[in-house]
Structure formats: structure tokens, C-alpha cells
Task: inverse folding
């Protein structure tokens, strides 16, 4: 399946590359993944998600049966609560976990040979993984066709969906690093030994040598030899002019052969591959052993050695391009250079201490900095709630237009019971544990969607805040009209103060993102 998808992508006009300029002044090109491989990876991941959603409930059911046999039954409300939380964790956490902590690859992406990276070619960080996957629910609409995400990818120059645009990420293809075998490389004249300036000076001397007398010619020949690389001076003859003539002939042959192509590139490129391949293979094994590990585990000398080998590989990549190496050699060198580059420029890992420091200082500072969009989100949530409350308390006949049937039943039940608010909110079809889990996951999802909707120029966040404000105000009015406002108030206040504030902050973040 992987080979079929990739062969189809090679024929697609969307099969482009992402060019990344490294600090070592070497350009690394990543082939972008096309619609076919990305949709196939999503299909596989969806199957894995469904298996997880089914497997754990079956496991919980088995545990429940086992507990019955031990005469220690698990409460039904607790069973439902665990189930609700598991569904929430899988649906929202599956992609975030694998992409953030498995080097940008979910199981589906790994099977299809694709990976998520930052636009600069560096590995995916947690913030970007969370952002691109919180917006996933928009990209898959209308579910399960994924028309929105597919259309945005189709018109995007880098094949990015909405989540990629928000997070600054791209999805690239990844193939094994394989160099041609040494026995397949023919013998050649080798790579040129002189740079262009030295060869031009040598050629000028050989062409004009007869215009000088013997003394001047000998003096110029010695001066020219002094400028040559030490490796070229080996085997120097007594007559410097004869030595330079022979060197010119050999270098001309090398440069001529370098322009002749073969299936391995030019002869000079094949010679480079023959000479360097053992070192490249050794470096590839070292990169593979380091991938995913922190450089902090290495000593200073080991890091220095690795950096020197990386710089040499970057220089070899530049030479391979100059000499006209084959596409396979260039691809393997680019992938190897990219893997080493990502080890050096991997995002700084975040420890638990740093996380709590961010919660204590960084998050409040961010909220203060973005107080304007957050305040606007608060107005969009509480403003419609206040308007709806006043409207329905003045005209209760409008309740059916804005209230769900379930909320009306709860308000009527509170009126009939006239008792504790826990009787109203704890006696429907679930117990307190299940209701708490349902409320928690629902409000977190509302906050996620309030943020993600900002990618639609902020309109998604605005509409969601207004809608939830209308529902909130209508619910308060329904209980007020029946004289039991304290019932819903005692239920909402303990958790609502935190959750509604979180929704306002998330909505403000979405509006701020949409403003960009």
C-alpha cells in the first residue's frame, strides 16, 4: 500500500520539496508528502483509534464482571465516568501524544513513511503538535470526508492543512538512507584536485610558457608550485615546468571526466562516493543511535567529534552537488544531513520544574499580554448570556426556542422536588462520578474548539462563544422563571468559575490567532 501511494504521488503535481537552509550554509530538501499518503495514514490511525475505543471498554467490562464474582461490584457511575474520560483522552490525545513524543510520527504515518516537522526542518515540538491537532476537528469536516482539510492542502503551496498553517508545520516523506554499493562503482580519473582559481593559473602558465625565457619560466614555475596544495606537490620533478605540464594534463583529464555522466553521477561524483561511503555509513549508524536521545548524555569531546563529522558531511553534500552525483546519493546525503541537523537543533526538552515555572510565571504573563482578546471573548460569552437571561425572564414563552428539552426537564424537576440541587443534577441517567466526568470533558472540548475556531479568521471562536453564552443565559432564565435559580447556581458556581474563565482564555487565544 505504501509503495502504491508513493508511486501515485510521484506523478502528482503536488509532489514538491521543502528547501531548508541550515546554519552550515547547506540546503537540505525534504520531499513533501502528498494527499494520498496523508489520507492513507489518517485512515490507518482512525482504525487504531477505533480499536483503542473498543478495547478499553471491553477491558473495563471484564474487570466489572471479575469484581462481581468477588462480590465487590464496581459502581455503574464510576464505570461510565472512566469510559467518558477514556473516549475524551483517545479522541483528543492520540495524535498529540504520538506526534509530540514519537518524533512527529503516529503509527499510521510511520507505516506510510511520512513525518511531521516544523517549516524550518527542525523536529516537531509539543506546542506545534498540540496546535495542529486541536484544529484537526475542523480539517476533518464534514466528517469523515475531510473535505476542508483536503481542499486547503490542495491549494496550499506546501500541502498544509489548517492545523499545519496554525502550527507552522509540514508533512514530509521519509525514506531509508541507502548509498550505492561500492562494487557497483566504476573506476574513474577521480575528483579534481585543484580549485577553479588554481587551475586557471596553471592553465595560463602552460599556454604562455613559451613566451618567457628559461630563467623567467623556471622562476614563475617555482612560485606557482609554492601555491599548490601539499598533496599535489608529491612526486614533483626536478624541472618545475615539466611537472606543471604533466599536472595540467592530469587535471584536465579529471575535469573532463567529471563532465561525463553515468548512472551513479559523473565519474568524479562516483569517486567521491567510493572514497567517502565508509565514513558516511559509520556516521549514519551514529545518527541512528542518537536519534531521539539528548546530546546532554554525551561528553563534550563526543559532541565536538559529532559536530566535526556533521560539518564534514555537510561539505560532502555540497561537493556531491557540484560534482553531479546521482539522485540516490544526493537523497541519502540530504536525509543524513537532515537527521544530524535535527539532532543539533532539536527543541529544548521541558522538565517538570520548567513546566510548573511556566504555569506560575509564563502563563499569567501571557494572559496579561493578551488581555484585550481575552476580554473580548468574555464580552462575547457573558454579553449574549445577559441579553438572553433578560429576554427570557421578560417573556418565558420564548424558552422552547433557545432551550433544549433536557434543560427544561431539569428545571421542572427542580421545581417539583424543591429540595437539594444534587437531587436535580444527580438523578437522571448517571451518578455524580459520571456526571462530573461528562461535564469536565465537555467543557474542555468547548475550550479546545473555542481556540481552534480562531483559525477561521477568528469567526469560529466568536460564533462558539456567542452560542454558548446564549445557552448559558437561557438555562439560568429557565430556573429563574420557576423560582429555583439557587438550584442551578449552586451547581454551576463551584466548577463554572474556573471552566468559564478557561473558555474565555481559550476563546481569546483563538481570536488572537485569527487576527494574524
Result:
Amino acid at each position: 500500500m505504501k509503495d502504491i501511494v508513493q508511486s501515485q504521488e510521484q506523478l502528482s503535481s503536488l509532489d514538491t520539496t521543502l528547501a531548508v537552509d541550515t546554519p552550515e550554509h547547506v540546503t537540505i530538501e525534504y520531499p513533501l508528502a502528498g494527499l494520498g499518503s496523508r489520507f492513507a495514514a489518517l485512515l490507518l490511525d482512525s482504525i487504531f483509534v477505533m480499536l483503542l475505543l473498543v478495547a478499553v471498554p471491553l477491558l473495563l467490562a471484564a474487570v466489572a464482571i471479575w469484581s462481581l464474582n468477588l462480590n465487590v461490584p464496581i459502581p455503574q457511575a464510576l464505570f461510565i465516568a472512566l469510559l467518558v474520560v477514556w473516549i475524551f483522552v483517545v479522541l483528543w490525545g492520540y495524535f498529540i501524544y504520538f506526534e509530540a513524543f514519537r518524533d512527529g510520527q503516529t503509527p499510521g504515518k510511520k507505516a506510510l513513511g511520512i513525518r511531521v516537522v516544523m517549516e524550518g526542518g527542525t523536529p516537531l515540538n509539543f506546542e506545534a503538535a498540540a496546535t495542529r491537532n486541536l484544529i484537526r476537528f475542523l480539517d476533518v469536516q464534514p466528517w469523515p470526508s475531510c473535505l476542508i482539510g483536503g481542499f486547503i492542502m490542495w491549494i496550499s503551496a506546501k500541502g498544509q492543512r489548517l492545523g499545519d498553517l496554525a502550527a507552522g508545520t509540514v508533512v514530509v516523506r521519509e525514506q531509508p538512507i541507502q548509498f550505492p554499493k561500492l562494487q557497483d562503482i566504476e573506476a574513474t580519473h577521480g575528483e579534481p584536485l585543484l580549485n577553479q582559481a588554481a587551475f586557471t593559473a596553471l592553465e595560463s602558465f602552460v599556454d604562455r610558457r613559451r613566451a618567457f625565457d628559461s630563467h623567467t619560466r623556471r622562476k614563475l614555475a617555482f612560485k606557482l608550485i609554492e601555491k599548490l596544495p601539499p598533496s599535489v606537490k608529491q612526486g614533483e620533478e626536478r624541472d618545475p615546468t615539466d611537472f606543471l605540464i604533466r599536472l595540467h594534463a592530469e587535471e584536465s583529464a579529471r575535469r573532463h571526466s567529471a563532465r561525463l555522466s553515468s548512472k551513479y553521477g559523473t565519474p568524479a561524483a562516483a569517486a567521491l562516493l567510493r572514497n567517502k561511503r565508509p565514513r558516511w555509513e559509520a556516521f549514519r549508524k551514529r545518527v541512528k543511535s542518537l536519534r531521539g536521545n539528548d546530546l546532554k548524555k554525551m561528553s563534550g569531546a563526543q559532541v565536538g567529534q559529532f559536530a566535526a563529522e556533521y560539518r564534514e558531511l555537510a561539505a560532502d553534500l555540497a561537493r556531491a552537488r557540484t560534482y553531479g552525483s546521482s539522485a540516490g546519493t544526493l537523497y541519502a546525503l540530504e536525509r543524513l544531513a537532515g537527521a544530524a541537523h535535527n539532532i543539533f537543533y532539536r527543541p529544548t526538552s521541558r522538565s517538570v520544574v520548567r513546566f510548573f515555572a511556566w504555569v506560575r510565571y509564563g502563563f499569567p504573563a501571557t494572559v496579561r499580554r493578551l488581555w484585550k482578546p481575552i476580554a473580548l471573548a468574555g464580552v462575547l460569552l457573558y454579553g449574549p448570556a445577559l441579553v438572553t437571561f433578560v429576554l427570557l425572564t421578560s417573556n418565558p414563552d420564548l424558552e422552547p426556542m433557545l432551550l433544549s428539552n433536557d434543560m427544561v426537564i431539569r428545571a421542572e424537576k427542580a421545581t417539583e422536588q424543591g429540595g437539594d440541587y444534587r437531587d436535580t443534577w444527580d438523578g437522571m441517567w448517571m451518578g455524580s462520578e459520571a456526571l462530573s466526568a461528562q461535564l469536565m470533558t465537555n467543557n474542555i472540548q468547548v475550550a479546545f474548539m473555542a481556540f481552534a475556531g480562531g483559525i477561521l479568521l477568528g469567526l469560529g471562536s466568536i460564533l462558539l462563544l456567542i452560542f454558548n453564552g446564549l445557552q448559558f443565559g437561557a438555562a439560568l432564565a429557565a430556573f429563574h422563571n420557576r423560582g429555583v435559580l439557587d438550584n442551578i447556581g449552586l451547581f454551576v458556581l463551584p466548577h463554572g468559575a474556573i471552566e468559564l474563565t478557561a473558555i474565555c482564555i481559550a476563546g481569546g487565544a483563538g481570536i488572537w490567532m485569527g487576527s494574524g
